[in-house]
Design a protein that fits this description.
11 helices; five-stranded parallel beta sheet; Rossmann fold; globular; four-stranded parallel beta sheet; binds phosphoric acid mono(formamide)ester
């Protein structure tokens, strides 16, 4: 593994290697092999979980972290990402963690640059968010063991969701049965999944129900929010009526409270897994950084 740009480029063995190392970092049986490396965090789009989690992971590994403030950088003067990264490499940076609004920009820039710097995707447009899918998989496996044959329902703004796309790529590799549930304006017919007509159908016998944030920053038109909440928003009543008692409720965050799900669910027992996702992300990102920058 030299870069982490999307899940499609990873084999099942590489995914399992990341998860196994993440588990070792979590239980304290692995030590850093990339201490003293230099990594820049280039977040051209806002983030809380991914940016702090990468910074925490890097700090725990003894990596020197450079938080690249895009507004104060020469990107704001029109410098290209290719030129920026080539210069960072000459300064001594060995890896760049990039979040960007443009889909495919990491793949494109990686092909343009003339240096051996590691590219790590922290989310590009609606294309891919590989470390989110990896931490989601890590969380699912903790609760379910294998996901093979398990029903995973993905509900909400699928069209604009890099999280959904990376999760589909990953879960299909491991034999999960993926169901999409979304109104017409959030559908994505390009994916290899089963399409459902209602939240009731999606929740029925689901082992995991992953709700997605409405990506307001990527919408072309306003959506009928009241109808959306009525049809797709999760409430305690719908959960009790339609879902198995032990269903895992997941959400990559940030959550639009009382839109994707009620505050009652978010603040209750079911909402705890969503915080656990953020917790697990640190160990998964430690494993990714160590495999890319370390001596393995
Ligand atoms: N899940 C996720 O990517 O959250 P942030 O946008 O806060 O990083």
């Amino acid at each position: 593994m030299k870069n982490l740009i999307d899940i499609k480029s990873l084999s099942k063995e590489q995914i399992l290697e990341i998860l196994e190392l993440a588990e070792k970092f979590e239980n304290g049986t692995a030590v850093s092999s990339c201490q003293g490396s230099h990594v820049a965090l280039i977040f051209c789009e806002n983030s809380t979980r991914t940016s702090i989690s990468f910074e925490m992971a890097a700090n725990k590994l003894g990596i020197h972290v450079y938080n690249f403030d895009t507004n104060k950088s020469s990107l704001s003067k029109g410098e290209s990402l290719k030129d920026t990264i080539e210069n960072l490499y000459e300064i001594g940076i060995q890896g760049v963690v990039i979040r960007h609004s443009e889909s495919g920009i990491l793949d494109k820039t990686k092909k343009e640059v003339n240096c051996q710097i590691a590219f790590i995707n922290a989310g590009d447009g609606n294309n891919a968010h590989p470390t989110q899918a990896l931490l989601d998989f890590y969380t699912m496996r903790k609760h379910l063991g294998s996901v093979e044959g398990k029903k995973i329902a993905i509900i909400g703004d699928i069209r604009h969701s890099r999280v959904a796309h990376s999760n589909v790529d990953l879960l299909n590799k491991f034999g999960a049965k993926i169901y999409f549930c979304a109104p017409k304006y959030f559908e994505d017919a390009t994916q290899e999944v089963i399409f459902t007509k209602s939240l009731e159908e999606a929740l029925k016998d689901a082992d995991v129900a992953m709700f997605l944030r409405i990506q307001n920053e990527r919408l072309e038109d306003r959506i009928p929010l009241f109808d959306y909440i009525h049809d797709y928003g999760l409430t305690t009543k719908k959960l009790q009526q339609f879902a198995k008692k032990d269903v895992l409720i997941m959400h990559p965050g940030p959550v639009n409270r009382d839109v994707e799900m009620s505050s009652e669910i978010l603040d209750g027992e079911y909402g705890k897994v969503i915080l656990e996702q953020a917790h697990n992300g640190v160990f998964v990102r430690m494993a990714v950084l160590d495999l890319l920058l370390g001596k393995q």
